[in-house]
Amino acid sequence: MITAASTLVEIAFEICTALDRCGVQSVLCGGSAATFYTDGYRSRDLDFVITFGWNRDGAEKALTGLGFRRSGSQYAHAESSFTVDFPPGPLAIGADIIQTWETVRRGELLLHVLSRTDSVRDRLAGFYFWNDRSNLQTAVLVAKSGPVDFDTIRDWSRREGANDKFGEFIRALERSR
Fold first, then answer.
1. DSSP 51
2. Which of 16, 101, 130, 157 lies deepest, with the highest CB count within 10 Å?
3. Contacts of 5 (CB under 8 A, 6+ apart)
C-alpha cells in the first residue's frame, strides 16, 4: 500500500510487481535507479522503460489498482509526491541498447532496475551530452555506492566520444574518496 510515507524505492517495488503480475516487464532507470543505489541522491519521479509485454489496459489497471491516476503522460498518486513516467523504449544508454538488468526481490515484491554500472553510465550520459554537472555528481555517488565495471564505462565513454569527460568523472570520483 502506498502512503505519504512511502519512499521512492518502496513505490518502485510496488509498481514493478503490479506490472509484472499483468505481464508487463518494466525496468527502473534514470534518476530513480540512481536513488535505488545511493543514499545521497533523491529523484522526485520514477522512470520505467517497458521492455516486454506492453499491455496498455493491463498496465493502466495495475497502476490504478495502486492508486495512481494518469495526468497527461505521467501518473500521480494522491498520497505521494512522486510521479511515474514511462519514457519510450528501447532501454538504451547513448548508442548502447540495454538487454540485461538487475532483478531484486523483497519478499513477494520484485524490482527490475538498471545495473549499478549502467546507472553510472546513464547519469554520465546527461553529463556527456548536455554538460549537466549534477549528473556527474550523481554518477560519482552511484559509483561510490558499490562495485561497478570501470572498463565497461571507459569503453562506452570512448565510443560516445567522451574520453575527456570520462577523465573528469574519474578525477571527481578520486576527489570524493
1. E
2. 16
3. none
